[in-house]
Write a structure and sequence with these properties.
Blueprint (H helix, E strand, L loop, with lengths): L2 H8 E2 L1 H5 L7 E3 L9 H9 L6 E5 L18 E5 L4 H8 L3 E3 L7 H7 L6 E6 L7 E3 L7 H7 L2 E6 L13 E3 L5 E4 L16 H11 L7 E4 L3 H12 L6 E7 L1 H8 L15 E6 L3 H7 L5 E3 L2 H4 L2 H5 L4 E6 L2 E3 L4 E2 L2 E2 L2 E2 L6 H10 L4 E5 L3 E3 L5 E3 L1 E2 L17 E4 L2 E4 L5 H10 L3 H13 L9
Parallel strand pairs: 1-10, 2-3, 2-6, 3-4, 4-5, 6-8, 8-10, 11-12, 11-15, 12-13, 13-14, 15-20, 16-23, 20-24
Antiparallel strand pairs: 7-9, 16-17, 18-19, 21-22, 24-25
Length: 446
């Protein structure tokens, strides 16, 4: 097959590609850094003529042009598999909605659901000599979306890193309907949530003390996981492995410090496995053509069976708040959507099933409101409308700057006592009074 000839046959303009989308269509719009740019700009011009166009994507890293049209709610919905700040703002405008699902289930959902995409549009790396367009650092669920879409449009970006893997990390030109050559924008960068605070550092020290040589790591996004990564890079730990949902800058720092070899991994030995990556240019440069890094679909990375197959698996994630029953909310502030289910529960469950594995849910004990009031992140019960990401039966280790407690298997009063022991001292007496009212407090408050 002459791939260059086929490429020329399928090459079109962003303007003509945008004409494929019709009223009522479901349009997949990539994932993180693969969200389209050139076709998005043309589709934004066309969208005011259309109604009820339903887009799907997630973790938007810039505001798409389709969001900027007049009265977008009259013409479209944005359905997010995982929310970013951009998508949270769009909720208030009445056209963005979260689609609750365990992230690991996405590929199967696409392949088995009746709600298949009419059109799939995404940025990709340039075609290689074998006719493949690489999905960059976003293998995730994109192959499943392409497999099930009626029309597949790829937007080539010469700056997209080529992320190696071996399964579902690229699409062949024979499965592509239209090719658009975009303006090759720089790959969008995502920071780590700001520099680590003193609280982040305190939590990180508690967690790093629980790690061992040969441990396999999963890190979430944010200051605390990045602080953990920084401490690991400076530690004496060795032969660490990586198997994670999201590849973040902290892993690059740990690898460059010589701490990651993957030599002790039970599966994917010597390789750092991930479903998608988002970070700074340092991260994209590291992932590009790096055979040590394995880009894989999310139904593999986040599968409890994959996670539990790895000995000494260490899962480290953030949350919004926790109540005295041990229910973890990592998704909302009451009814206000913040994030999504993602893979947190998969990793909490998988890490506990791993031989020697541990999962850590961490957060600062308090936060300040806009008017400067200090509030506890540990609550008697979750606020009305808050989402339970991890049930009280699943939480393993809970960590704040005041300590680390193992909650697995504890009776309600034991669990309550342990959680209050790592709350901010200013709130402990009040939490005890509330626990007494709920009949889950056994000891005196002294």
């Amino acid at each position: 097959m002459d791939f260059k000839q086929l490429y020329d046959q399928k090459l079109t303009t962003a303007f003509d590609a945008a004409k494929v989308v019709k009223s009522g269509d479901w349009v997949d719009y990539g994932w993180t850094v693969t969200t389209p740019v050139a076709v998005d700009a043309e589709l934004a011009k066309r969208l005011p003529e259309l109604t009820d166009v339903n887009f799907r994507g997630g973790i938007l890293m810039w505001v798409p042009e389709i969001f900027k049209i007049d009265e977008p709610a009259k013409h479209m919905t944005w359905n997010s598999w995982h929310m970013s700040g951009i998508e949270r703002k769009a909720i208030a405008q009445g056209f963005s909605y979260y689609a609750p699902i365990r992230y690991s289930e996405l590929p199967r959902y696409y392949r088995e659901s009746q709600n298949k995409p009419d059109v799939a549009i995404m940025q990709v790396a340039p075609m290689d000599e074998h006719g493949y367009f690489n999905f960059g650092p976003s293998a995730s669920h994109l192959m499943a979306a392409c497999e099930t879409a009626k029309v597949v449009i790829v937007e080539v970006n010469e700056n997209m890193p080529r992320c190696l893997g071996g399964t579902e990390e690229a699409i062949h030109i024979s499965k592509v309907d239209m090719i658009v050559e975009g303006d090759n924008p720089n790959i969008a960068e995502m920071g780590g949530g700001g520099p680590a605070t003193e609280v982040d550092e305190a939590v990180a020290k508690l967690i790093v003390n629980e790690l061992c040589d040969g441990a396999c790591l999963q890190l979430g996004i944010g200051g605390m996981p990045n602080a953990v990564g920084s401490l690991i890079a400076k530690s004496d730990l060795k032969d660490l492995g990586v198997h994670t949902e999201m590849y973040v800058d902290a892993f690059v720092d740990i690898a460059n410090a010589g701490k990651i070899t993957g030599a002790k991994k039970n599966i994917d030995k010597f390789r750092q496995t991930y479903a998608f990556g988002a970070g700074t240019k340092k991260l994209y440069d590291y992932l590009d053509n790096n055979p040590e890094c394995m880009s894989a679909p999310v139904d593999y990375t986040n599968d409890i069976r994959s996670i539990s197959a790895l000995d000494n698996f260490m899962s480290i994630n953030n949350c919004v708040n926790v109540d005295l029953f041990g229910q973890v909310n990592a998704e909302s502030a009451g009814t206000k959507n913040i994030s999504g289910a993602g893979g947190q529960l998969d990793f909490v469950l998988g890490a506990y099933l791993s031989k020697g594995g541990k999962s850590f849910i961490c957060c600062s004990s308090t936060f300040k409101t806009k008017d400067g009031q200090l509030k506890s992140r540990i609550l008697p019960t979750l606020d009305n409308g808050s989402i339970v990401t991890d049930t009280r039966a699943n939480i393993h280790y809970f960590v704040t700057e005041y300590g680390l407690v193992n909650l697995k298997g504890l009776s309600t009063w034991q669990k309550c006592e342990a959680i209050i022991s790592v709350a901010h001292p200013d709130f402990r007496d009040e939490l005890i009074k509330e626990a007494e009212k709920m009949n889950i407090w056994r000891r005196s408050n002294k």
